[in-house]
Write a structure and sequence with these properties.
Layout: E1 7-9, E2 14-17, E3 22-26, E4 29-31, E5 38-39, E6 45-51, E7 53-58, E8 64-65, E9 73-78, E10 81-86, E11 91-94, E12 97-100, E13 104-108, E14 111-119, E15 123-127, E16 142-151, E17 155-159, E18 165-168, E19 181-184, E20 188-191
Parallel strand pairs: 3-6, 4-7, 5-8, 6-9, 7-10, 9-12, 10-13, 11-14, 12-14, 13-15, 14-16, 15-17, 16-18, 16-19, 17-20
Antiparallel strand pairs: 1-2, 2-3
C-alpha cells in the first residue's frame, strides 16, 4: 500500500526505509495545509528518527494517521527535534501506540488519540491549552481509549485545556483496561 518501497527527497530532508519501516526527518520544514502530515501503516511499527530540527504544520488529521481506527504504532527517537504545529479541529495524532524513546517532540494543538503510550526517554512538550473543537469543547492532552500510558523516564510537559491524560473505555466507561491506566515510574513530569 505504498509503504513497501524505499524513497527519499534529500532537498526536503526525509527518507523512508521500507525494510525497517523507518522514516528519517532531517531539518524538514513542511506545511501540509489540508492534507495529512504523516501516514503510518496499519500494521507493525513505524519508527520516526529525528535529526536536526524539523517542523511540520498541519490542519488536517495531524502527525501520524494509520487510516485504520487506532491501528499501527509509531516510535519516535533520535537526537533531533520535531515540532508539530496542528491547527485542526480533531487531533494532532491518531495511532494505536505511541512511544518516545529519545529526541525532542514538541506538539501544539489538538489532542493525541491513542490506545497505548510509553515515554521512556527524550522530551515531550505538548500544548493543547486554549484549543477548542468545533463544538466548543476544550481539548485533552492524551486521550487514551481502552489502553494505558506509562512514563518511565525523560521529560514530559503536557498543558491541556481539560485533562493532561484522559483514559477511557471504548464505547463505555466499563470497558477501561484497569491493568494499565496511567503509570508514572520515572522522569520529570509536569501535567497541567
Amino acid at each position: 500500500e505504498g509503504f513497501d518501497v524505499d524513497c527519499s527527497n534529500e532537498a526536503e530532508g526525509w527518507s523512508w526505509d521500507a525494510d525497517t519501516q523507518t522514516l528519517t526527518l532531517n531539518n524538514v520544514n513542511f506545511d501540509t495545509e489540508g492534507n495529512d502530515a504523516i501516514i503510518i501503516a496499519k500494521k507493525g511499527v513505524t519508527t520516526i528518527i529525528m535529526v536536526g530540527e524539523s517542523t511540520i504544520a498541519t490542519k488536517d488529521d495531524g502527525l501520524a494517521v494509520s487510516r485504520g481506527y487506532f491501528e499501527g504504532a509509531v516510535v519516535f527517537k533520535g537526537d533531533g527535534v520535531l515540532n508539530v504545529e496542528y491547527e485542526g479541529d480533531v487531533g494532532s495524532m491518531d495511532v494505536g501506540s505511541f512511544t518516545l524513546e529519545s529526541g525532542t517532540l514538541n506538539i501544539s494543538g489538538g489532542a493525541v488519540f491513542i490506545l497505548n503510550t510509553v515515554i521512556s526517554g527524550g522530551t515531550l512538550n505538548f500544548d493543547s491549552s486554549g484549543c477548542m473543537s468545533s463544538n466548543g469543547q476544550g481539548f485533552d492532552g492524551f486521550y487514551i481509549l481502552n489502553g494505558g500510558a506509562e512514563i518511565l523516564g525523560g521529560v514530559v510537559n503536557i498543558y491541556a485545556e481539560r485533562f493532561a491524560f484522559f483514559v477511557v473505555g471504548v464505547g463505555d466507561y466499563d470497558s477501561i483496561n484497569t491493568d494499565k491506566g496511567l503509570v508514572i515510574k520515572g522522569g520529570d513530569v509536569t501535567l497541567c
